[in-house]
Amino acid sequence: MANWNLASLTELFASDPPALGDVDVSIEGDVLRVTLKEKGHLDVFVVAGGEQILASVMLAPADSVPERSAFERLALKTHKLVPLSTFGISIVNGQEWYELFGSLSARSSAEVVVEEVAVLAGNAEDAARLIEEWRNGEIAA
What we know:
Elements: H1 6-14, E1 23-28, E2 31-36, E3 42-49, E4 52-61, H2 68-78, E5 86-92, E6 95-105, H3 110-135
Antiparallel strand pairs: 1-2, 2-3, 3-4, 4-6, 5-6
Organism: Aureimonas phyllosphaerae
Protein name: Sensory transduction regulator
């Protein structure tokens, strides 16, 4: 199989794979935005380049999370429990954001690419809930 690229990924996600439900796709530069309508319009950003595909969900502005260093320590301690996904910090419009991302081979089958995005979306929902519980003081530092 040839490596995935922006055009082939767009076609894959525009077909509304059953594992993702109804989705919208749009291209922003070299990035594919896959909006999962059935997951509250969750945006997953997908990039294909070289030998890998990277899928990412922006979770929350970092400055919106109290006790950031303690939260980041918690994220580092628990990230092994989050299958196929990793926590990170990215800069969006000059502001730090927590993100959850996963990567896979650009030669992966369509089923594996869709599964990665589906698992990432589920993990992002869990991570967003974790952040909200942290903000509300339901999880101790």
